[in-house]
């Protein structure tokens, strides 16, 4: 019984880390600006909330789609994850796209939406495959919040060494899970 829970939670944790890597890498850049700890906490919470909302919408739509396409669900979910992972991997070094605005007000909302948009697509594929929604949303939200905080705190110290490499790692993780769904 405990093995079933572990075999279900471990892939979700790894997937949440993969999704949170985008927020982590952007947070490294944000952390290079001088921010108060209260602002850092707030930014992490907002990004975490978006990493709950976006996959929730995706999971809900995925469950609707799952009822429509039945036995193709695992194949479609695998294709979506592999595609998202490949996109994250190949666009990791596109420096023109990542111009960071100030993380306040509408800029913070836009930032949170931008770094969580990939979790919508992942949520869609997970909804198709019938994942446990509450557990998934908790893991995605909490791990992205923690990775955002970590990124901003490290950004204060590191000044941008890891940026694109963390996105490469996140894209590789999602791509691997997509391939696993397709062929595993």
TrEMBL record:
Instruction: Work out whether the entry's keyword set contains Transmembrane.
Output: yes
Domain of life of the native organism: Bacteria
Subcellular location field: Cell membrane
Transmembrane intervals: 12-30, 42-65, 71-93, 105-128, 134-155, 162-183
Which Pfam families does this entry report, sorted A to Z? Mntp
Q: How does it sit in the membrane?
A: Multi-pass membrane protein
Instruction: Give the keywords, sorted.
Output: Cell membrane, Ion transport, Manganese, Membrane, Transmembrane, Transmembrane helix, Transport
Function, as annotated, reads: Probably functions as a manganese efflux pump.
PANTHER family of this UniProt entry?
A: MANGANESE EFFLUX PUMP MNTP-RELATED
Q: Which family does it belong to?
A: Belongs to the MntP (TC 9.B.29) family.
- Recorded protein name is Putative manganese efflux pump MntP
Whose protein is this, by species? Virgibacillus alimentarius
Question: Upper taxonomic classification of the species?
Answer: Bacteria, Bacillati, Bacillota, Bacilli, Bacillales
């Amino acid at each position: 019984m405990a093995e079933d829970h572990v075999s279900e939670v471990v892939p979700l944790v790894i997937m949440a880390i993969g999704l949170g890597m985008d927020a982590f890498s952007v947070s490294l850049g944000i952390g290079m600006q001088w921010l108060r700890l209260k602002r850092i906490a707030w930014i992490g919470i907002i990004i975490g909330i978006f990493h709950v909302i976006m996959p929730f919408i995706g999971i809900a739509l995925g469950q609707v789609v799952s009822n429509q396409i039945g036995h193709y669900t695992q194949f479609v979910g695998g294709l979506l994850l592999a595609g998202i992972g490949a996109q994250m991997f190949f666009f990791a070094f596109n420096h023109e796209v990542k111009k960071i605005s100030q993380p306040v007000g509408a800029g913070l909302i836009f930032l949170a939406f931008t770094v969580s948009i990939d979790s919508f697509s992942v949520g869609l594929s997970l909804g198709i495959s019938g994942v446990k929604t509450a557990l998934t949303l908790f893991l995605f939200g909490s791990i992205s919040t923690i990775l955002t905080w970590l990124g901003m705190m490290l950004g204060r110290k590191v000044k941008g060494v890891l940026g694109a490499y963390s996105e490469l790692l996140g894209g590789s993780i999602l791509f691997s899970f997509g391939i696993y769904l397709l062929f595993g």
